Amino acid sequence: MTIDAFAIVLALRQTRVKYIADLGALAKTNPISAITFSITMFSYAGIPPLAGFCSKFYLFFAALGCGAYFL
């Protein structure tokens, strides 16, 4: 996920995207990059069908299995 996020930002850097505010019009200028970037950010957040959710899910269940209930 990290490599994907940095790759998208670096690819957009070669175009006219210079600031974070410029990402607001990304869906109109480059829709494929916008979809890829959105999926990557949703995966970071842990939205259920993505890899970020699976990693957090298994991490918390492993912690519960070891008796770390304070998490």
Automatic annotation (TrEMBL):
InterPro entries: ND/Mrp_TM. It is found in: Membrane. Keywords: Membrane, NAD, Oxidoreductase, Translocase, Transmembrane, Transmembrane helix, Transport, Ubiquinone. Its main location: membrane. Residues 2-71 form the NADH:quinone oxidoreductase/Mrp antiporter transmembrane domain. GO terms for molecular function: oxidoreductase activity. This is NADH-ubiquinone oxidoreductase chain 2. It comes from Apostasia shenzhenica. The lineage of its organism: Eukaryota, Viridiplantae, Streptophyta, Embryophyta, Tracheophyta. The gene is ND2.
